[in-house]
Batch of 4 targets.
Target 1
Amino acid sequence: MALNKTTPYVLKDTYKYHDGLGNFFQSETYPGAVPLVNNHPQFPPFGTRSEKISGTSFVGPRHRNLHTYLYRVRPAFFHDEYTPYNHHLETANPSPAKHLTPNSYNWPKFQFALDQDSDWTEQRLLGSNGDPAKKEGVSIWVFNINKDMEPNTAFMSLDGEALIVPSVGALDIQTELGKLLVRQNEFAVIPRGVKYRVTLPEGKPARGITLELYQGHFQLPDMGIIGSTGLAHQRDFQIPVAYFDGQFVEDKNSRDGVVAKAHNGPGWTIIARLNCKLWSAAQETTPFDVTGWQGNLYPYKYDVARFSYLGNLCWDHHDPSLFVILTAPAYGKAPGTAVVDFAAVGPHWEASEDTPWVPWYHRNTMQEFVFPIVNNTDPKFPFNQGRDWAPFGAWLNGSMIPHGENDEEYKHWQEKDTSRPGRLQDDGITAGVIEIESPLRLTDWAYNQAGKNFKNQVSAVFLE
Ligand SMILES: [Fe+2]
């Protein structure tokens, strides 16, 4: 069976995208919605105003400078005071991530109250390191949602850039810069401070992991001797085109003869995450009143099936760096140190003689958080059934915590004929891997339900 070059989705994506991570894009919902030459004209087109989102400090190197200009009907500036949002709930005001032990952890199935409806604003904090107030570290959240966000609400994280990975299900994400459909075996990245709204296509539940990066931005890894192709390629990342929640109406008295009018509805609520807590503020106008944008700071998505795996052609086993899709450099540390790497091990060929096609037993300085991504999209596939389903778990190996195959698995790999190439990961599950530089502390929610010191991690999480 040939490898899928894109995931064969039953749920089709009808949204339009720009292609190419790192490119500078200009996106208009009406010809001329983005002004020529001047970013900040005295009279922006169609009665809009210009608003800039800068994702890096102003004087950083040009190759790291990320910013985008939005042309919108009503600037985001016009909102009421932020006040604590549902701080009596664990999802809005989680217990501090404090548990740090030398143990490995596994979660065969995350514990949720399944009789309780939840939406995007009700994620569970699993763990974190660093401090969002210092822009250092990461947090990992678990979502298990079965309803749309409330009408006229939008979410944003002020803590960091969010990597959103559905394990199963799909998310319809409307951002200020346009719409993305993010299905299992795809992931999305939403920059810090960009507002978005999550609904469920066809009303079906979705479960997965959100990784928030407090420092800097995700980027493609350097390729070194690999050269220019292989792994994740720039052109396979998809960036939304502008979407205006409104219409353009003729107005002979206006400067351009046409004026942009937003569909505001009865008022909006913006829910913001800051220091892992939720806050909310009211505003009269929709955050999705952007008629056009231009820049290189934007949300994007990627289909993991597009990843071009590299590997052995003779013997030995190589480091998981070959599976890295995105990395986030730890500035101020030794060159090449990452705050976090995001990798995925999906269906691929192995051709390594006299070598088990699984890693050696190992202890890494990076911590490894591993979780399943269901790449089989057949609705009848067992793991695509229902909300209370397995596998929906993860494991975490701390820094220098030893791990590897159990005896049964080890013997299986010893008995395998390695004189011919073979396929791995053809069971419908891609392993999502988050390699983390600094120790991850767990919340009570994660710590109290975790299995510890397990010796059978793969079967415990993926096959239960
Ligand atoms: Fe490992």
Target 2
Amino acid sequence: MKKFSAKKVLLAAALLSLTANAQAAEFIYKPASMTEIAVNLQKVEGGHLERFKKPYEIQRLSDNIYWVSAANYNVTVLVGKEGVLLIDAPMHTGKQILKAIKAITDKPLRGIVYSHAHADHVGDSSLILKELGDENIDIYATEEVSDALLSHGVTLPAPVTKIIGEQLVFEGHTFEVYKDLDGHTPDNTGFLIEDGGRKVLHAIDLVHPDQLEFRSFSNVENAIAYKNDIDKLLKMDWDVMVTGHSNLGYKEDVEFVQQYIRDIQNYIHQGHANADFSAHLKSDTPFAWYAGYSDEVIDFATDLLAKKYREGREEEFDIVARSHVKVMFWAMLARAL
Ligand SMILES: [Zn+2]
């Protein structure tokens, strides 16, 4: 009997390792600390609602770098020798972020960097400048981000004053600039810095640790390029990632998204192979045949996805999963993938 139950436990463990929630077990959850550097795989404890209700949270990532979270938007703060550099300034978080920076250091804010031209991530830069009444704050972005802000007519963020090239140097600290993480938006930019032996990556709207991705993979502009971004993130050399939302990110979080996308693509291929295109050619309405066919494949793939990923996160899955399959289906169909 004893032997049997041990076997059962082993079997349960093996099955669990196949489920989508197995990743959670690897991480260490602790309250946010602005003094103690998070160790590898350490995350900030607390649920989604809790994170929303706190004015801000600060987690130290290295000697000089901090993760700051406000209203479930995350930014990177670098404390230099004389001043502070902030990467991103999400809308409706500016005042909390300034309070968080004040809690970390007395040094003045000297620069704000934009990761991409989405106003929700950079829109409070103008409010921050106004609050500080300080003209000595540089606004950094790549040419691509600056151009996107202008061409899209995004006027809420403060205008860019310094264009970034392949590196961003701030008070002796050097960030490597990655312009090829361009699936979410063509201008999306990653920033990688090594500080005190820790490699911190700031890469926004690509991975949402501890949850499924936001709808349509965060309203992805190019789903295939986005899939490639996920593969690139795994090849890059970094230890911890500031992801823009939810929790701290690690390679294990990226692997989860990589597998999720691979499964979606695989299930779409299966649905495609099973679907009878001619069965949908029965209405004179333009596109009705396309709608019937695409719905059949998307529903088929979503049902298979549910078998692996829905358990334990039913509400979340039902809100976003079909949008993931849908956006990937159309991107694959257009490219005959
Ligand atoms: Zn975005």
Target 3
Amino acid sequence: MSVVPEENASLRQLQIFHSKLDEEKDFDKDLLRNVAFLSGEIGELVRVIQDIQKADNVEASRGLKDRLGEELADILAYIY
Ligand SMILES: [Mg+2]
């Protein structure tokens, strides 16, 4: 089983992690479908940014920034 990279992992370490994860989980390797999925994740990122811009208090904004990190991680998973 792939070991989740540490927080300050290098891009190369993340690439290796995702490559192993793809093999383990038998994820789809079709380039066109992966670009389509990446586009969906970019849309999710845009929605979070819009929500952050609309947030009217620090607490709400903090939770949204966690979501922002999750969406950026999703995008990173598709661009290695
Ligand atoms: Mg996502």
Target 4
Amino acid sequence: MKPSGINCRILAAAAGALLFLLPPAWKAFGEERPGAPASTPESVSAGKAVFFEYCSGCHGRRADGRGPQSINLVPKPQNLRNAQFMKYLTEERMFASIAGGVRGTAMPAFELNLPAEKRWQAIHYLRSLTRGDALQISNAPDHQAVPAESRNPVAYSAEALASGKRLFLNYCASCHGARADGRGVIAPNLVPMPRNLVAIASWGEKPFIDYMPDSRLYDSITNGVPGTSMSPWIKVMNDSERWSLLLFLRDQAREERERSEKNGGSPAQ
Ligand code: HEC
Ligand code: HEC
């Protein structure tokens, strides 16, 4: 028996434990305070891969907070496509939340699993999702009169349609459903529920919005529908963004019509 050997091992273990207990000191030596690298198309697409691998289980592949693991979490992961939230979320805070996690929530610390470079790539990707949204127009009026003869000034184009679709999925689909059929995830909790805007009735009648002039629908999107959960969007999006939403809705109704014609006139499922 060599007591000195045991002592040595105890000492070594104690020293190891001490090092383990002092990560801040170790980090101060090991990791430089990272500066923010510039966002590039390459860093955005690298960030997408990082996001899909490490984050989408909770935040969802669309970053809308509805990943498969989100179901059991309280609080829920943030909807990172909500430009109003993202606008006030600084890159420093995002970096800190991703590195250190968010205490009291399921948001884990990625400091030891993801190098700083990859954390920045994820931030660049997240930023890119809402960059185009001209949101929170604080000096916009509270209400906009919409003359009955107003027509959608946004001409049909692939870009305008894509922009309307993106906005719809980000801001409207939770209530109206991704296809505007009224089957959004929170629709069952609403009174009244959003109607199916685009369906052909079983007796073959045209979709609701086919009967509605542009001015009526744009008025509802701009100023809201009093007495329902349909809020005004006038302070959230600019005019052409709101019109592009209507372009998307009309296109959805056209798709439903074509689907029903293919089914020999019966409504799409
Ligand atoms: C285990 C589930 C989970 C995983 C995995 C996860 N998150 Fe989160 N995340 C959350 C939750 C829950 C919140 C909400 C915290 C709150 O309510 O403030 C959150 C919040 C955030 C926020 C907002 C932080 C803030 O300061 O308000 C960002 C940004 C974020 N996550 C990015 C990421 C990124 C990037 C990844 C992948 C590298 C990721 N998350 C992985 C659950 C997760
Ligand atoms: C919180 C839930 C909710 C959100 C978010 C929401 N809506 Fe609505 N919406 C409703 C409800 C409820 C109604 C009223 C019932 C109906 O007409 O479907 C409605 C009505 C409408 C109508 C029909 C209005 C009319 O003139 O009869 C349109 C068009 C519409 N919403 C578009 C949108 C668009 C575009 C967005 C996104 C910018 C949006 N909604 C976001 C709940 C919502």
